[in-house]
Description:
The chain is of the alpha+beta class. It has a domain at 1-35. The chain has 2 helices and 2 strands; from the N terminus they run E-E-H-H. It has helices at 40-51, 61-70, and strands spanning 6-8, 13-15. The longest helix has 12 residues, at 40-51. It starts with 5 loop residues before the first strand and ends in an 11-residue tail after the last helix.
Amino acid sequence: MLSVRGVYDGKIIKPIEMFNAPSNVEVIITFLDEKGGGRLAERMTKGLLELSGTWEDDRPVEEIIKDIYDNRTSSQKGIDL
C-alpha cells in the first residue's frame, strides 16, 4: 500500500508528492478534513497536547518508585501449565 499526500481543488485531486505507481491502478481517496482549510492532524495533536501535562508529585523519587513497584500486578500469577 502507498500513501500520497495531495490537494483537491474542487475538480481534480493533485498529488503534492512524487510517487511511482502503475497506470490504471485502483486507488482509495480519503479526505482528511471536510472543511478543506485546516489540517486534521494538527488539530488532533493540539487536542491531545491540551489533555497532557507535567507530573506533579511532592514525594521523593524513591517513594514514588517504591509505590509503583508495590502496586504492580503480574500477568503470570495464577497460571497453571
